[in-house]
Specification:
Elements: H1 2-27, H2 34-43, H3 77-87, H4 93-105, H5 119-154, H6 159-173, H7 176-187, H8 211-249, H9 252-259, H10 264-276, H11 278-282, H12 284-294, H13 296-302, H14 308-318, H15 321-349
Helix pairs in contact: 1-15, 5-8, 5-12, 5-15, 6-8, 7-8, 8-10, 12-15, 13-14, 14-15
């Protein structure tokens, strides 16, 4: 197993480099970079100009400009060159890429162009919101889906199975953002009841609440966004659990156990459960990462939650490259490590699995 893990760890390096190369190359062809963003703001801000990046000051009211930038009319070439130097765009793309990767290998992600805050500090600041949504959504999906999936497998073909399958399919077909808007309209004072808050993770008077009050206030705020994020993963996990149990129930060892006179619960939870739950339990890390990174952007925006999804979206719109590439590098690395963790979960749940004898 050690050799297998070592091979997987070594594969992380070229995979991560490939991810960064593709995204860095694509960015070079996307118009509206950070310099263009600043120039557009300066052109519309009057005759007093202040640089945004690095805290350096520069002003201009002379005639001239650089034809490479649409917003550079009326700005002196020296000002444009100073901006390029501050952002590092005075160097060729290949040199910038190698410097970026060397810094990232040392986990030096630099500072945001427009916030003057370190990328790591930004990620740490926004991470609690995304962890809250991802963790609770995943746990609730497992707590509901596993018992429901087992029940559907035991009563396969019954009216209960038919009705719940229809409900699950409808839930899976509803886009998460549409369901989130529906929850806001119904339960956040949109048109009907004002039961849950419209925005934020905690109330404004959070510091003044007691410990129990803080816990209740926290759950009061996360109820709607967590429900909105859970709906799609809940449907997928339920059907996965049902199909996994159905496959095991039809096997010979189950028939033999029933023939020996064991009760249905003893057979189901003493023999079938461990084998059937292998794929469900082992998939927990990847499911959590998927919910954590994939479903948070729209939900955080709709519920005004300041998390990683919203941070990434704002960085992409503003062309804040340090935040974009820094978070891409960190999340890509985490995703690859979670893939290895999922394999280790398979071995933990069922020691008979041997990845050592398989090719990567």
């Amino acid at each position: 197993m050690g050799a297998y893990i070592l091979r997987r760890l070594l594969l992380i390096i070229p995979t991560l480099i490939g991810i960064m190369v593709v995204n860095f190359a694509l960015i070079q062809f996307v118009p509206g970079g950070p310099i263009e963003q600043i120039l557009a703001q300066l052109e519309g801000s009057g005759d007093a100009f202040e640089t945004i990046a690095g805290g350096a000051d520069a002003g201009a009211n002379a005639v001239g400009g650089d034809e490479r930038y649409l917003g550079a009319r009326g700005l002196p070439p020296e000002f444009i060159e100073e901006l390029e130097r501050q952002f590092g765009f005075d160097k060729p793309p290949l040199e910038r890429f190698f410097k970026m990767m060397w810094d990232y290998l040392r986990f030096d992600f630099g500072e945001s162009y427009f916030r003057s805050v370190g990328v790591i500090d930004l990620v740490i600041e926004k991470m609690p919101v995304s962890i809250t949504l991802g963790l609770w959504s995943t746990l609730i999906a497992y707590l509901i889906s596993i018992p429901l999936g087992i029940r559907k497998a035991v009563r396969d073909g019954s009216r209960f199975d038919t009705w719940t399958s229809g409900t699950i399919i409808i839930a899976y077909a509803i886009p998460g953002f549409l369901f989130a808007i529906l929850l806001l309209v119904l339960f956040s004072g949109g048109s009907y009841w004002k039961i849950f808050p419209l925005r934020g993770l905690v109330s404004d008077n959070w510091d003044d609440l007691s410990m129990i009050g803080k816990v209740l206030d926290y759950f009061w705020h996360i109820t709607l966004p967590v429900v909105a994020m859970t709906i799609s993963s809940f449907a997928t996990l339920t059907l996965l659990t049902k199909n996994s149990f159905l496959d095991e129930i039809k096997k010979q060892y189950v028939i033999t156990a029933k023939a020996k006179g064991l009760s249905e619960n003893k057979v189901l939870y003493g023999h079938v459960f461990r084998n059937a739950m292998l794929i469900v339990i082992a998939g927990f890390p990847s499911l959590f990462i998927g919910v954590f990174f994939g479903g948070s952007l729209i939900i955080e925006t709709l519920f005004s939650l300041d998390g990683l999804g919203r941070l990434g979206f704002e960085a992409a719109v503003a062309r804040d490259y340090p935040v974009m590439f820094g978070t891409l590098y960190v999340f890509g690395l985490m995703g690859l490590l979670v893939g290895i963790l999922s394999d280790l979960m398979y071995v933990f749940v069922d020691p008979r699995i041997d990845f050592e004898s398989r090719s990567v």
